[in-house]
Amino acid sequence: MLKRTSFILISIFLTFVTLSFYGFLKEEVILFFCLIFSIIFVYIGHKNALLLSGTLLFSTVLLNILIGASGLGNKIYYRPHEILMIRDYDTGLGRYISNSYLKINVPHGDLKTIDKKGNFEAEPRVEEFKTDSAGFRNESSYNSEKYLIVGDSFIQGVGNTQEDILTYQLKQKYNINTYNLSFPMDIPGYARYIKYFKKIHGNNFRVFLFVFEGNDFPDETVAKKEEDTIKSKIIINLKELVRYVRNYFTRLNLYRYSYSLFTVIFAANDTSEPVIIENIHDHKIGFLKVYADVTRRKNYNPNQDIKEALNSVRDSLEIIYFVPDKYRVYHEIDKEKKEPLPNAQWDYLNGVCRKLNIKCINLTEDLIKESKRLLREENKFTWWKDDTHWNKYGIAVGARAVAEAIRQKEEIANKFSSASK
Asked: DSSP readout, 37-48?
């Protein structure tokens, strides 16, 4: 009896390990399949259970090796962001593989991945991507820089080569050393990054936080209240155990390949039209429809997560910058033919900042002004034509804003210092 039970338990464990290789399976799905296989193992007997689970694991390991040897593990990716991104279980945060360097030809932006048939201009580019010892996109590890730059993919620099990202421009153009603590998350996620950083490095820094209109202001959600029962606690703990174990699989070829392949297939089956195409200055430009819909909101009333998150780190925040969506910026280029857009996201953020006494700056007008100038004088754009992210010209607007804020702060500090002598 003890031998049979042990064989069944080993078989369940081997099945669990096998399923953990497949990145597209959610934690609850893995638990469900483990339960189903448990029933099957009891039915077929302990010897057959061990044989079946061992065969499945062996086949999966072999498949992982074949994907790595064939190069498929990297061919599915078109940019460094997907190749290097991992999840750090210890912090619960995403980051990149530490001390990495990639230089690859990126054939197009993310909109071409979302809508391969979209008739808008693709912009091939070469992207150089470096990470530091902590897994963030910096030339070198944190060295007591006074200022952190925090935000999502816009500030990390997705779609742009290393010398064009915001922290690099601040160093090269303004001789300002900053540290890039950015990774695609949301506002509560940025707060977690900042608090995590404070635990390691103390409080001797100030944060310039950039929030993006497109995805940092999710639709209103009602938090589901978990029933405080023994059953719910068991389920929560089991899912947490799965997440912990799977953290060790996230770098494996099969995990990453299966996750990306599933995402591509899911996107291909989407029959909607996810990208809006507009002719601007004789260029066919793509805009993500989901983000464009966000700019059209007439009001924004989220749950308290955003306000609570900002409040939890407000003592570290120097300035919050609002980055508008690409659609909002270029909507203004031909605004005489269009209805003016509301400002629901900015109005909400500005209201929260006033209540929390945090300085908040809207970059919309600066980006519109620079976008008009570039089109008129150089026939260039501040966003990639085939991407949701800004390019080096748009990033330069953000860098200039940060540099000006630091200059003003230092001028005030110098005047105060001189007056006190």
From this structure: HHHHHHHH-HHH
